[in-house]
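Format notes (please read before filing issues)

Several people have asked whether sequences and structure tokens are stored in separate files. They are not. Every record keeps both together, in the order shown below: the sequence lines, then the token lines. Line labels are part of the format and must not be stripped during preprocessing.
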Amino acid sequence: MAGVTLVELLVVLTIAGILLGIGTSSYKSITTSYRISGEINGLLGDMQYARSEAIKQGQNVVVCVANSAGSDCAAADTRWQDGWIVFANTTGASPPTTSGNAALVMRVQPAFTAAGTGSSDTLTDGVTSYVTFDREGLALGLLTTRSGLGGAVITLHDSTSNATRTRCLQVTNVGNVSVQQPSTLSSCT
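Then the structure lines:
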């Protein structure tokens, strides 16, 4: 007879179950890595945009942690995962503020949602709540010394704080912005 025995069917189902289990964990790891890369690259892109706009417009441009409305800087908030805004700081106020002028806001990044992933990604260095770029492209007001070179190192962790998925955005006082990993930057922890 042309058919399948119960033993053959159980062997095939066992092998399929093992392969499915391996594939699921690999898929979750890959999607988490892509999400982390997308989040840190979003902040990197907005920092580079702010620097180029500051040079182009000849005035200070600020990237800061956004308030809940996404219209101004959140006072002393260092949780970049809550979202950020890019705006022209025409008043030179310190700490920077849009003073309610929505026309100054160039970009708005909403809070990380990680829909369906159960994620609680954190993007902070515990010190830096804003970065101001001046007309020469220099980063002003970065007081943290975590980078060892002056500037700031803003770290992105996933919910497990897995070092292989950790990424850091390094902003130097001369305005260079780059993404680093713990293996390439000792202060990226």
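For reference, the curators noted about this record: The longest strand covers residues 152-157. The mean pLDDT is 84.
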